[in-house]
Amino acid sequence: MPSNGSLYLWRGFRGRCPACGEGRLFRAFVKVADRCNVCGEDLHHHRADDFPAYLTIFIVGHLVLPFAMFVEIAYAPSYWLHAVIWTPLIIGLSLGLLQPIKGTIVALQWHMGMHGFAEAKQARLAG
Predict the structure, then answer these.
(1) SS (H, E, C) 76-119
(2) What's the pLDDT score for residue 57?
(3) What is the tally of structural domains in the chain?
(4) Largest alpha-carbon pair distance within the chain?
(5) In sequence order, what are the residues at sequence separation of 6 or more whose Cβ sits closer than 8 angstroms to the Cβ of residue 15?
(6) Tens digits of per-residue pLDDT, 71-105?
(7) Handedness of CA 19, 22, 26, 30 (dihedral sign)
């Protein structure tokens, strides 16, 4: 279990409501639900925009590139073999990381009271 400071981020990473940890954060693959179906927390305020895609590209590139460079330097395979090896890995990692990264970003915005989440943060601090 993560520490209390990262609890909200962990909930977002798992695709759960950052407020209660029970409700689903997404209504579709990367479409955030308007509100939590368990606690009713409004989630439509998020402004993740292109940042999750950017982070996904950044992380996948940094994970795959060292291995691709090693294979190229050590074995010098043909380009088609590189495509056969790395394309499925890149697509799989990208699709696998996109939703958890977006959930983490939405949870971070919620926790920090960014955009329309400021009222929810004030209510948390007051109560």
Answers:
(1) CCCHHHHHHHHHHHHHHHHHHHHHHHHHHHHHHHHHHCCHHHHH
(2) 98
(3) 1
(4) 62
(5) 24, 25, 26, 99, 100, 103
(6) 999 999 999 999 999 999 999 999 999 999 999 99
(7) positive
d(CA 126, CA 113) in angstroms, rounded, equals 13
Q: Where are the beta strands (DSSP E) in 8-97?
A: none
Identify any residues that bridge with 32 across adjacent strands, giving them in sequence order.
26
- Residue-wise pLDDT tens digits, 30-46: 999 999 999 999 999 89
CB proximity list for 11: less than 8 A, separation 6 or greater? 17, 18, 21, 25, 103, 107
Domain span holding position 11: 4-126
CA dihedral defined by 17, 19, 21, 23, rounded to 10 degrees? Answer: -40
